[in-house]
Amino acid sequence: MTSTKASVAGRTASPSTARAINDRLALHLLKDKGPLTAGELKSLTGLSRPTIADLVERLRQTGLVAVVGESGAERRGPNARVYGLVADSAHVAGVDVRTDGVAVCVADLLGRTVAEESLPVAPDVDPAHTAAAVVALVERAAERAGAAPLHRIGIGMPGLIDPATGELNSPGGLPSWHRELATALHGGLAAPVLLENEVNLAAVAEQRLGAVRDRDTFVLLWLGHGIGAAVVLDRVLRRGASGGTGEIGFLPVPGTVGLPSATGCDGGFHSLVGSAAVCELAQQHGLEAAAGGLHGGGAEGSGAAEAVIRAALEAGERGETFLDALAARIALGVAAICAVLDPGCAVLGGEVGRAGGEGLARRVEEHVARLSPLRTWVRAGVVGGGGVLRGAVLTALDATQNELFGAP
């Protein structure tokens, strides 16, 4: 008889528990390392050949695993079957919610994108109509991909997400349809919904796909129209008691004309590095980028700030002094985070961080070194404008795989 004993927390597991552990291990190996033969699974798991044979047959019956080919065609004898995850056995959707639009990505069980859609949203549209339009958008993307029904939906949006309830818990300032969207998607598509702050999702994407794949602990600064940070300690995303970890826009810093308040961050770090402040600083240094929507610093959108950063990188000496002044401002926030958390690494994300690239990151790192005795590397985010959407997909995918594979 095949042995299925395994040790769990120092005890011998029951046969059913051992099978569940072995199945989960095999499924994760197939996900991470691609299609494998039974022999390769045996080598990677240390399980016996009969146990692997039982395991493979059991997983095939669930519909999660199938024969996807053969190996050994170059040698004599029977070829070995190659087993892989059935990618279309489950699908998830990621939704990136902004104040002026929504982007959707549908992915299969292996995380491969199978459909994308987007929808601009006018500020004066009825909230209920907007929520219904977004539900229809996600439904259309799923149908295009042949992915209906969806297994899970991950949503990224600005604002505080209550860790206890998973609900949007932000005060005013955001469109009212944001509050209705999660409920509308869950009700309209009958799929569990995971709501997460957009900056947190960008950090998930950077750790899994981008600039900090080699780091277990880091912070991500989101530099755009809004200012925020995500904190990852020992590979765990930290949200805080109310979901407010990383609300660095409210951080009191030198160089502002006032102090932040409970109802506004105008006197805080936001006043130094938000898009409007970046454009104003550019004007002080004589930079213009009319092609990007900025002329004399008058525009305040994140697109204008991004344009002026790119212009500065091409402007020679004037651009150098502006970038150094901006880096000195950004370093104030990074140094404050380092003094409390000592993350060892900070990633510059958002439109400004992405536009500044490694040149801006290097300048910030040099300024932080002058402000703090704690060695901190500063890197430019590389995931790009789709980071929030990709993080939403990854979050939904993780939860789905834990459900289907068995949570550890």
UniProtKB/TrEMBL annotation:
Keywords: Kinase, Transferase. It holds the Pfam family MarR_2. Residues 26-75 form the HTH marR-type domain. One of its GO terms (molecular function) is kinase activity. Signal peptide: none annotated. Belongs to the ROK (NagC/XylR) family. This is NBD/HSP70 family sugar kinase. It comes from Streptomyces iranensis.
